[in-house]
Amino acid sequence: MRLLRAFLGLALLFSLSATVLAQVSAIPACAQLCLLKTLKAQDECGITDQACICQNKHIAANVTACVTGSCTIRETLTYANISKATCGVPDGDRSFGPIYPVMVLIICTSILVCLRMWARSISAGFWWDDWVIFVTWIILVPWCINGIIMGYIGLGKHVWDISFTNLSRINKMYYWGEWTYLVIAAGYKIGILLFLLRIFPEKRFRVVVWCLIVFNAAWGVSSVAMTIFQCWPIRKAWDWEQKVEGRCNDKHAQAWTAAAMGIVLDLVILLLPIPSLIKLQLSGKKKLGLLGMFSCGILITIASVIRLQTLVTFGNSQDKTWDQTPASYWTAIEMNVGVSVSCMPALRPLLQGAFPKLNTFFSTTKGSTNNTSGTAGTIDRMKQRQGALKMEEGSVKHTSHNGTIDTKSESTVVELSRMETRPNTSAGNDGWDAHSSQVMLDRKDNMV
């Protein structure tokens, strides 16, 4: 509607003042003809009645239909810009959204990723989930910077208020951000699934996780390929002037499908570990704590659902740089929250060291104490236990509420043991029994 109303102002340029006559010379000829034709065909407003012309929806609709059908995109935007100024329409600017919130998000996410890598380096060492999240973060940083730059050069402003040069840049940067988003989304999902693979030894659970990893990878590759080749030739994807001959897929349907599939996968990953967590022989507080930690993934789903809603609005827009703004920052929220949530389990030892009361909340063995408190004590225990746990090999038993399952040197359970960070000091027993299901459950509490 802003674009429609902006067209109305040209009528005011037909007064006899020298200033107006100078402005008329800058108006594309096709737009002048459309306005004259529309004004002659109506009797609702006089040709110099500014308030009437600028507010009349009937005139707006007719002028819009004529200009968009008769003028090029450049001519249409030029006319809209001058008409907006003539009608006194204020400049809209909501570029704050793609700039400052995204800055805060990527800084916080970067801190969490660095803390995760630090915690893993001084405890159990790195595994595939750590490297996948790290690589995903490496891609996320320039992706966020790309969005911030788009905000500085025009994203968040009306399309007719942006220079043609910056409009071309925004379209190219948006195209790059489209397929990079899909890489990041697949990356953090696979990273979370690899984490689940590392900590849960049940065979059926692991088969399901592996299937989801393969599906995520396949879906990610196919989605990226479809997005890169959404138009042929490829440069037509950012051709906002529609000068390049070729064809394009339905970009909006493609984006909605990818967003909907992402939501489904997020929900599956969120719900997947809950049955296994409920079966564990843990105290109520400990079980609640673990469920709460894994349930943080609901934040990803919420952001994804809101983003999908904004994509629908954006897809039907004629003022894309303005209407794309909510979709841009909700996409940034979704990606940063996804990477951040994947780092939370690895940060628990550091948090328990910084806040010793968490040890009491998550403890399962009554009378168990921790004589060394603070982050420094946690790091020392990590290093001491890391050396001792390297000797742990062979068969390990895991007990669920249904009985005992021999995992037969299940590598992920051995890895679980290696992530132990808190020794048990009760009754002269160091709490280490490779074949004790309860100790294995205690160790699950301290995994990263």
Automatic annotation (TrEMBL):
Disulfide bonds: C45-C52, C54-C87
Lipid bilayer topology: Lipid-anchor; GPI-anchor; Multi-pass membrane protein
Sites where the protein binds heme: D49
Cell location: Membrane; Secreted
GO cellular component labels: extracellular region; side of membrane
Membrane spanning residue stretches: 99-119, 131-153, 173-197, 209-235, 255-278, 290-308
InterPro entries: Extracellular_membr_CFEM_dom, Rhodopsin_dom_fungi, SAT4-like
Bias (Polar residues): 401-414
Entry's family note: Belongs to the RBT5 family.
Protein name as catalogued: Putative cfem domain-containing protein
Species of origin: Botryosphaeria dothidea
